[in-house]
Design a protein that fits this description.
By secondary structure, the chain is mainly β. The protein has 2 domains: about 5-130, no CATH class; about 145-300. The chain has 1 helix and 21 strands. The protein has one helix at about 145-155, and strands at about 5-10, 30-35, 45, 55-60, 65, 70, 75, 80, 85-90, 110-115, 125-130, 165, 170, 175-180, 180-185, 195-200, 205-220, 225-230, 250, 265-280, 285-300. The N and C termini lie far apart (about 75 Å).
Length: about 300
C-alpha cells in the first residue's frame, strides 16, 4: 500500500490541507491561516512557541521536482530517493562481482532506480541499475515527538482573564484593592479548559492534550507567587466584604502602595498547563509544561475600617 507523506496538523475538527502553499516557515512547513468554525481564543503570552496558532502545517516529504507534485514515499519494496528522483530498491539477484555495473568496487550493493511511471513506459526501460556503498537515503523517519510538538504549535492556548476583588476605583479613577483584605483573583472558566490537537505524517499520528493545572498570582509587591488548583471564583455580594475566596485564590497585601499619587502594583496572572502526548505507534510521554500570562495594575489602598486578627 502506498503511504502518504503529508504532514497535516489539525484542531479537533478536520481541516483540509491547502491546494498550494503561499508561505513557508523556517522548517519548510507550509503555513496557512485558517478558521476553525468557531471563536478563537485571545492572543497568548506563553512559554511555548504558539506563533502559528490556528494554522495548518503541510510538509511534503516526497515530491517530484519537475512538477512539484507530491508522490508516495513507498512503492512496494522500493522507496523514493528525493535526491535521485526515482524509486530505489536493492536488487535481489546481485550481478556477478566484476561486471561493469560494479565499477571496480567490491563493497556495497547494486540498486535499481525506477522513474515515475507515466503510463506509457516500456517495462525495463524506465530506470537503471547503479552501485552504492550504502543504501540511498529515503524519506525522513517520522518522529512522534516532533509531530506532538507541531500539534502543540497549532493550538491557541488561552491567557487568563484578570478578575479581582476588591476592585473599586479611587477618586482619580485609579483601580485599587485594599490593604489586609483578601484580594480575590480568578480567570474566566472558558480559559481553563482542556485542549487537544493532532498531527499526522507518513502513516504516524500524535495527539497532544493540554490541561490547565493551576492559576497563579504574582502580586507585584515583592511577595511570593500564590496559586490555586482551579480557575477561582468571581466574588459575589453574598460572599461578604472581607471573606477569603472559597477556591483558595486570594492574597493579602500587607502594605499600601500609595506613597505618591498614581503609584500602584502590577500583578501577573498565570495559567499553568501540562502537556501530554500519545502516538499511533503506542509511544507516549510529556512535553515541557507551559504558562500563559496576563497582567493588571492597581493601587493598594488603606481603608481605616478594615480590621484583621
Amino acid at each position: 500500500m502506498l503511504l502518504s507523506c503529508l504532514l497535516a496538523v489539525t484542531l479537533s475538527d478536520a481541516i483540509a490541507a491547502p491546494a498550494s502553499c503561499q508561505q513557508y516557515d523556517s522548517h519548510g512547513l507550509c503555513v496557512v491561516q485558517v478558521g476553525t468554525g468557531g471563536a478563537t481564543a485571545a492572543p497568548t503570552q506563553s512559554t511555548a512557541d504558539t506563533s502559528n496558532r490556528g494554522a495548518v502545517y503541510t510538509q511534503s516529504l516526497c515530491t517530484f521536482t519537475a512538477s512539484g507534485a507530491e508522490v508516495p514515499c513507498q512503492d512496494g519494496d522500493a522507496w523514493w530517493a528525493q535526491s535521485m528522483q526515482c524509486y530505489v530498491k536493492v536488487l535481489v539477484d546481485q550481478p556477478p562481482m566484476g561486471t561493469a555495473v560494479w565499477g571496480g568496487h567490491t563493497d556495497g550493493a547494486i540498486y535499481l532506480c525506477t522513474f515515475l511511471s507515466t503510463g506509457t513506459s516500456v517495462p525495463g526501460t524506465n530506470g537503471f541499475a547503479f552501485w552504492s556503498a550504502t543504501a540511498p537515503a529515503g524519506p525522513p523517519v517520522v518522529d512522534p515527538v516532533a509531530l506532538a510538538q507541531q500539534a502543540l504549535q497549532s493550538l491557541s492556548v488561552p491567557e487568563p482573564t484578570p478578575g479581582r476583588y476588591p476592585a473599586g476605583s479611587l477618586d482619580s479613577g485609579q483601580p485599587f484593592t485594599v490593604v489586609n483584605a483578601y484580594t480575590w483573583f480568578w480567570t474566566d472558566a472558558a480559559s481553563f479548559g482542556v485542549l487537544t490537537a493532532r498531527a499526522d505524517a507518513g502513516g504516524v499520528s500524535a495527539e497532544v492534550t493540554v490541561t490547565p493545572t493551576a492559576l497563579s498570582f504574582t502580586p507585584g509587591d515583592g511577595g511570593a507567587t500564590v496559586s490555586c488548583p482551579g480557575p477561582g471564583v468571581a466574588w459575589q455580594p453574598t460572599d461578604g466584604v472581607w471573606a477569603p475566596s472559597p477556591a483558595g485564590c486570594d492574597y493579602r497585601y500587607l502594605h499600601s502602595s500609595i506613597h505618591e499619587p498614581g503609584q500602584e502594583v502590577t500583578a501577573v496572572y498565570g495559567i499553568e498547563w501540562s502537556v501530554a502526548w500519545r502516538s499511533s505507534t503506542g509511544a507516549s510521554g510529556t512535553l515541557p509544561a507551559l504558562t500563559t500570562t496576563s497582567s493588571a495594575s492597581f493601587a493598594v489602598a488603606e481603608v481605616q475600617s478594615v480590621v484583621t486578627g
